[in-house]
Amino acid sequence: MAERVVLAYSGGLDTSVGIGWLKDATGKEVVALAVDVGQGGEDMDDIRQRALDCGAVEAIVVDARDEFASDYLMPSLKANALYQKRYPLVSALSRPLISKHLARVARELGADSVAHGCTGKGNDQVRFEAAVAALAPELTSIAPVRDLALTRDKAIVYANKHNLPIRQSAANPYSIDKNVWGRAVETGFLEDPWNAPIEDLYEYTQDPNVNREADEIVITFERGIPVALDGVAYSPLAIVEELNAVAGKHGVGRIDVVEDRLVGIKSREVYEAPAAIALIAAHEALEALTLERDLGRYKRGVEAEWANLVYDGLWFSSLKRSLDVFIDDTQRYVSGEIRLLLQGGRAVVTGQKSAESLYDFDLATYDTGDTFDQSLSKGFIEIWSLPSKISARREASSN
Questions:
Q1: What is the mean pLDDT of residues 234-258?
Q2: 345 is in an annotated binding site
Q3: How is domain 176-353 classified at the CATH fold level?
Q4: Per residue in 165-177, pLDDT tens?
Q5: Is 298 left (phi over 0), alpha (psi -120 to 50) or beta?
Q6: What 8-state DSSP symbol labels residue 115?
Q7: 138 among the known binding-site residues?
Q8: Residue 392, Cβ neighbours under 10 Å: how many?
Q9: 368 appears as a binding residue in the annotation
């Protein structure tokens, strides 16, 4: 049997043309692997058939939506993961999952290599190849767009010449990636950061400037994981889907950012992630209620490092695994309910309660019944400020 290469197949221009290019350049049979992470749009069976029509010897479709939500999105939520404080890792979270299935299928079929459709300028090439290296170091990674000089114009010519069943055209200037956690749009006129996004860019969210009656929703968490909306239990995937709809209706989760790519360049990206932004706002509020002060402070630094690792393609690294253990431990008491008001592009916390709350009304109140002994504060402040006082004396004596 001929050697095989397993291609991460999206159904788009680059990976469709990549089937033929891989076969021509390597002489290997191409197996297309399409992984459903909630990107919506086309039917996955149609994508499977397109791969076969483009020359794949086999096309495999994996429904990984529940796995994606439970094993990738929920850990990200527990970490309140926002790269550069803005980006909820929409694409970065799907890549290790796709890579996991790439490695699995390659091993099952006895393939010696895997392939992806990434360019040499982006982050995803690193994410795919670093993940495969960690999971199946014996496999070789091939990138037709990067390694075989498959440019967009060449891809369109190749597709037309071979009558490939693709819908892409040179008229579409955008590069789009999406899954159930959000949607990313780049290139075209967006490459000039001075150009404002236009409404036609958006799909998951409606215009937040349109006046709509607010929606209020109560999210129930157990150990950092959302388990119910307005008292109705849902799976993690269903909660994300429901919040995408209701928060998206109000334009929540639109993000326009210039971010630092791993390869060393800056890139202007437009994202929309309604469920992600709403859930992170709710989760952070519940943590503020239930985490001890020093633990919360330290965790915020860990969150930034966790987001950097995932953005940089190191989902399967030792440090990431160790940080997961810490983050999971912080969630022991993060259970309760958060009320969110959704309107005008914002998700605003309007109520919070938890049986594990560290908020003590009798200590916090300024009214009669206050149990906080204010007389203790004077001595506390004197001791707390003593190092500063001693240092100031030294500074004064040396002048």
A1: 98
A2: no
A3: Argininosuccinate synthetase, chain A, domain 2 (3.90.1260)
A4: 776 554 566 788 9
A5: alpha
A6: E
A7: no
A8: 11
A9: no
